[in-house]
Design a protein that fits this description.
70% helix; 10 helices; mainly alpha; elongated
């Protein structure tokens, strides 16, 4: 991304991409490396917004940079980003995850449904939706993950969510589960 910014210094998208990649890389770096990466990310996000105040990705980067315990700041930044770029798949999905993390599951479900609507071919967004649908005490979550398993049969995220939902349906919501996961019935061929 640094090369992109060097070659096109007046393009907001390059700076927002640099900000987001640096912010995400900082999460998996040593403490010493993270300090520089976070500073670079803040500077790049500010420059992206200076060039284009409607850069949702710059707000996404700022939300990733917010302290993990400051969910109010994270939500504020996600919502600012969505105010300028409501069709952002990542902003919608990240806000849904945050809302789920703080127990606002009904809001999270609606937000994740929007994210899937915007990016229906994303295994990550579909598994997130299936996991949230489990709360509605219906088989909708299981139906969503089965559809995802047909689309992405080798995706680890899909399989992990499938196993999770299988456990939820067979232990907690047996009466709503598909017949083949009932304890006395064998799985289909």
């Amino acid at each position: 991304m640094r090369q992109v910014v060097a070659r096109a210094p007046d393009i907001s998208l390059g700076y927002s991409g640099l900000a987001l990649s640096s912010a995400q890389l900082a999460q998996f770096s040593t403490a010493e490396e993270a300090v520089g990466l976070r500073a670079d990310a803040r500077k790049a996000a500010a420059r992206a917004l200076e060039l284009d105040p409607r850069s949702g990705e710059a707000y996404l980067a700022q939300a990733v940079l917010a302290p993990p315990h400051d969910v109010v700041e994270q939500e504020t930044l996600y919502r600012r980003g969505l105010a300028v770029e409501p069709e952002s798949r990542r902003l919608n999905s990240n806000l849904a995850a945050l809302l789920d993390d703080v127990g606002r599951t009904a809001e999270a479900l609606a937000q994740q449904q929007r994210s899937v609507m915007l990016d229906s071919l994303s295994p990550r967004k579909n598994t997130g939706l299936a996991a949230l649908q489990r709360l509605r005490k219906s088989c909708r979550g299981y139906a969503t993950i089965e559809r995802a398993a047909k689309l992405w049969p080798a995706n680890t995220n899909v399989w992990m969510t499938r196993v999770y939902l299988l456990a939820i349906f067979s232990v907690i919501q047996t009466k709503h589960a598909p017949s083949w996961i009932q304890p006395d019935k064998p799985p289909p061929d």
